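Predict the assembly for these two chains.
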Amino acid sequence: MADQKASTSIEAVQSGLAAQGYIASRQIATAVYLSQQIEKPILVEGPAGVGKTELAKAIAAWRGMKMIRLQCYEGLDEAKALYEWKYAKQLLYTQILKDKLGEVLGGAQTLHAALEQLHDFGDVFFSKEFVEPRPLLQALEQPGGCVLLIDEIDKSDAEFESLLLEILSDFQVTIPELGTISAITPPTVILTSNSERDLGDALKRRCLHLHIGFPEQRLEERIVESRVPGISQALRRQMVGFIHEIRSLDLKKLPSVSETIDWARVLVLLQATELDTEMVKDTLNVLLKYEADIEAASPQVTTFIAKAARSNVFG
Amino acid sequence: MRENLHRFFRAARGAGVHVSPAESIDAMRAVAQVGISDRAVLRDALLLTLAKSQDEKLALGDCFDLFFSQPEPRQDQTESDSEENASQDPDQSPSSGSASEAGEGQPPEGLGPLAQMLLSQDRNAIAAAIAGASGAASLSDIRYSTQRGIFSSRILDAMGLQRLRDDLDALTATNPALAERLRAALDALREAVRDTVSQGLALYAREEAENLRNEILRNAPLARIERRQVAEMRALIRQIARRLRERYSKPRKRQRRGHLDVRRTLRRNAAWGGVPFLTAWKRKHRDRPKIVALCDVSGSVAQVSDFFLLLIHSLHEVVDDVRSFAFSSHMIEVSEILEKKSPEEAMAEIMSKVGFGSSDYGSSLVDFEKDFMSTLTPQTTVIVLGDARSNNLDPRADILRRISERSKRLVWLNPEGRLAWGFGDSEMPRYATFCTVVRQCATAQQLERAVSDIVATYQ
């Protein structure tokens, strides 16, 4: 019985995401479902443009939660990702409070008494008022929970990874002056990576590892269907088939789902009803981002269109 | 199922997927969530929790399919005609329509359970019995292919082979036709058990076998590697290089070390109104590694130099400041080739330029002194990889002395054993006096240790 309920929940994830225009494969839905159930972040790997970032957006929209995004880059550090002290505010306050200090200590007769009084104020300057929360801390402080997207983690330095470990495993951070801050509601964490750099084992261990590759033809058709409503079914099939042919070439950058969607939009704009060689050649720059790739693909266009058309007959 | 999952984790480790206890707990939790009835979902869940890279996912997926193909046949083998079925059927082809019922009715009383089971043709029961007996014989302990026979007979014993033999003897006298059938069924059973054991071997023994092979390779002399092992050896050295890189590669940032850290200074002094009583400094950087590698690629060490070059190639990835030189009778700089090209291309190019010649250490050292002496600084570590066999030509040890004087350390890695040094045309003893360290470096393991030591001194 238990698994009956469980499997419907995976389907619930699938339909929930679909309602936001994100067509998830079963594996993606399973990952999202599991990350919810066993409270683990998802590390999403795969080529650019297959919908890694979109997944986080779709989850946030589906659950009606805020999405907090942290874009990683080389040199990203604690101060930009986690929290920073508001130095200017601290300085300004010391200036203002200089005068107040006299008043506060006015009643004290001896140095010792003045010191006692000062102790009562404690470490006011390192209190929450002077902390500037950055994305990670913000995510922990959301009362209703949120979706935390740590984008392109592979672009950050190895040190930054270790900084994340505490958050990823326990949903808490430790600020030396303040102590440990735990999440009010554990955020749903999505990390994305293009595998530019190998991530540490410690990080990988804390995450569910999801690999999103290029989708299968049917799935991609459904994605196009949901994203580009105006496109006819015949054209959709044909163009997706064509793109699958293109992906079999040895190119610098293979067209991914985002390019498929862009191309579908362009074709709709051009009011195309079916692919023809001229038009494909004219719009190839939407799909392929390198001159060399376009040159490599151009001679094949006619054959690919024919192949795509043929596969339609059977599909 | 718990038991089954644990066995699967072992199998996954066998397939090269690193499954730590914490990961197996995660997997258990995940499985508890999704249940085990839907195999596709179970597969997804295990792949998500256990595999940490795309390669691991593929390996684990294969492992999953292999592992869970075991119990699966219980459902569908009864309907579909497997080969086994076909091999047994001819005996009873007249009554094949109702084979199982007819079989069930026939066996006379007094036969052992195994004989009953075989004669009744109940595939579910037989498969279950094999699985149970494999458990009893702890098939998951199988390590080497030579153990196949032992495990097969253990499983058969656990299923009650002894009793079956007695039954067979008894039947041969009383009911030869039935005995014949039973014998055929026993043959089929043996075959099924053999398959089970092979599958077990494929599942559980891979890691062990691989470790063993790697261990042997690691300690095998580089020069005596057989042709078919070269590819594996390369993979192994690549692995070593990767490990070195992971251990020693430096974080890419931190160029501005030794400067005033304004932010931390301000923060520290906020309590004094921003008057900088205490200053904070960015960390001072460590000694920058400078390595100059001289690699002998002459005919006598040709096979070893392949591995040397591979290792230098990885040094280039680990350490920022490496200059590499290759020589047999004259010396050229190969840093750029090693940096720009893939290991295979680089090695091919270097070998085609200076490789396979007869070695002349003297004139190579002259080349070095003439063109590249200025690359040496008091921080440089010089590594020489070669057998110091100079075809009885002038070794020019004086140049090596000057190299040694100009640099911080001079390390000589020699693929020959100590016993051979100084015999024949080996100039090793003469060179050794100017070296900080001289090491034999004939196996992958020694190579790894040597390079690891060199790099570690800079950390």
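Chain B touches chain A through 36 residues (CB under 8 Å). The CA atoms of residues 79 and 214 of chain B lie 45 Å apart.
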